[in-house]
Amino acid sequence: MKSMLRTILLGTLPVLMVACATQTTPVVPEVKATEAVAPQYFLNASEYKLLLNPEMFTDYVSGFENYWKIINEVALAEGIAIVAEENPMKLKHKDVKFYDTPNLDLRKQGFVFRERIKYKGAEKKTGYDYVLKHTHLDPVIASSVDLTLAEGFVPKSPEIELESDLVYYSAANGSTQTSYTISNAFIQDVQPKMTYGTIQSIYPALSLLELTDETELVLVNGMYIDEWKVGPGKLDCGDGLYGDIDITIWLVETSEGTVAIPEFSFDHEYLKDREYAADAMARCTSFITKLNDYKPEWSVAGNQKSAFLFE
Fold it and tell me: What does residue 291 show for φ and ψ, rounded to 5 degrees?
């Protein structure tokens, strides 16, 4: 399984090291998307990611528990406090699907369209959670389109998010790969018709793709994702910098069997009116390196989890 995952995860984009790993919180300049000027987006979050070894998660519940112990041991050694949840190993379960045209026209233009359905116990909850993302290694290009929803649709968050995603030990060359993503999400009781015309009527920015309204959106490579996750607590890096921890596993059915894609990640917000202290940022940005060095057999060459589906 490990060798299969390593093979699948090769061939990612070239690495671009950027300044989001410092204490600064830049504002991305305005750029023109089509004829209109896109809004000015503030870099309001960073997520730090480490792809984990699926061989350690054949029993993913035990894998979550064992890796949570490792996280605590490294945090203690680095002088980083852990703020644990009351029930750190509470499981969260979702169905995850990615939709694109048969020719991956969205992906080719930097877009990803995702659907998630949550579970409560063994039963699926009502409602479909959708998000459109636009991603690039360059923050200006990533934020060059206006992801505002069409009139009549209510976003989950009042602010369109611009986030930096740092993938440690990239499969491309072993370094840290950083990309930037803007995203806007909404929830709907009924699943919309999966055509370009329908989705473009929700996200007008997709009009730049110049597809016919009847163009069908299908499951990317026909793959369904069974997602299990725990959010056991927060890293307290100091100066008010708290990293929300997630340990996630995707179970993906393929023609060759089930592929497991486990990941450790944590994310934090940036504030418009202040910067984090340099020592707090240093503890934050070095934590995954310390984690990997402590138990290197637990991690593998990194990539975005969704890259598996497209590659």
Answer: -65, -45
